[in-house]
Each structure stands twice: as structure tokens, then as C-alpha cells.
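Troubleshooting log. The previous structure file for this entry was overwritten by mistake, so regenerating from the original sequence record. Sequence copied from the archived sheet and checked twice against the printout by T.R.
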Amino acid sequence: MTLTAGTRPTASTARSSRSTARIAGRLYLVTFLTSIPARILYDPALQSDYILGSSSTTGVQLGTLLDVLCALAGIGTAVVLYPLVKRQSEGLALGFVTSRVLEASALFVGAASLLAVVTLRTADASADPAVLAPIGDALVGLHNWAYLVGPGLLAGVNALLLGTLMYRSRLVPRPIPMLGLIGAPLILVSGVATMFGAFDQFSAAAAILGLPVALWELSVGAWMAFKGFRPSPLLGDDAPIR
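Regenerated output below.
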């Protein structure tokens, strides 16, 4: 695709692009600052005997809240970037927004399933453990599958779509989107392999295959937040995008 522009960016356009970059970058960083502690905080709820316990549920509830914030920040990255990257490819940009919303929806489902575990754990102390235990396992299973589909498979789709847009537009240095374009098929393979039982969802193999996408999201977020966008026809420069 070739996109040309005949005028140089005005001061207001430059300010607008800087604002877009900073907001999108900070939202990307929010996804990191929320997702990692969220997983640590709600990890006890993923254990098979959690629903039968009596310890505090505050950590699990806080972890699910962080997952919800992560999902909202993820949607925000796509919404903020859409008006700009659609100038490169409206189809890819719309696909990125849609994929981000679907990823966030999976996180919402996962968070709700763990909150349901908390509710059952605290609702009735006289409930039969033989009944509660399988229900808890089913809700945890729902969370794990939602997590696999959301931050797993759909994260690969996101990396492929936005990585392509950033690579073509050169809004950020090309090595950064290359991480996403390399990592996207790896995390998709990891998700499918996990789905069919090749290895565990939180195994070392899954972590290694998911690392390039994690580095892509961290690097593109940090670059946009602290460096902004590079000169590009999308911002009104004269050079064509190829």
C-alpha cells in the first residue's frame, strides 16, 4: 500500500500525534502493570481446594479487579490508535479494535468466573464440599480457557494486526513491530498446542513462546509513551508509505 500526503504537519497535528502516542503508550504500560500482579493475587483461587477454604478473599478480588482494568486499558489502546492507523489500512485497524474487544471480553469472563468462586466460598458454610469442589473446578477451568483464548490466542492476532500497521507506517522503529510479527505465530502455536494438551498453559514452553509478544507490547508501549511517533505520512509528512 502507498499513501502520500502533500503537506507538512502543522503544530496542532504534531501535538495531536504526540498526545495519541502518549495515551496509547501509557495504556499499553497499564496492561503490564495490572496483568502481572493480577495473576499473582488471584493464583490461590486457581487451586482446586480454594473454594473449600476460609482465608481472606481480598487478594483474589483485587486480582480480578486488576484484570478488568487491564481489559479496559487494552480496549483503550485500540480506540486511541484507530483514528490514526486507519489511514494506513482501515480494515486492519478495524480488525485490531475488534480483536482487542474480544480479548477484553475473555478477560471479563475469566474475572467473573473467579468472583463466582469467591461468592460460593463465602455464601454458605454448610454447603456440601462434595458439591462445591466440582463447581469450583469448573469455574476455574472456565477462567483458564478464557485466559487461553484472550491473552493467549487473541494476543497473537493483536500482534499480527497492529504489528503490520506499525511496520508499514513506520510510526515506531521497525525492529519493534518485527517482534510482534515474529511473536504472533509463536503465541498462536503455543495456544493451539496448549488447547490440545501438548504442554501446560503456564509451563516454561508456553512462557518462552509468549515472550516475543510480551516484549513487543512492552517495547511499543514504552516507545509511544516516552518517544512518541516517528515522522510518517500518516502524520502529514511528504514521504510515501510502502
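Confidence is low (pLDDT under 50) at residues 1-7, 238-242. Archived copy saved in two places this time.
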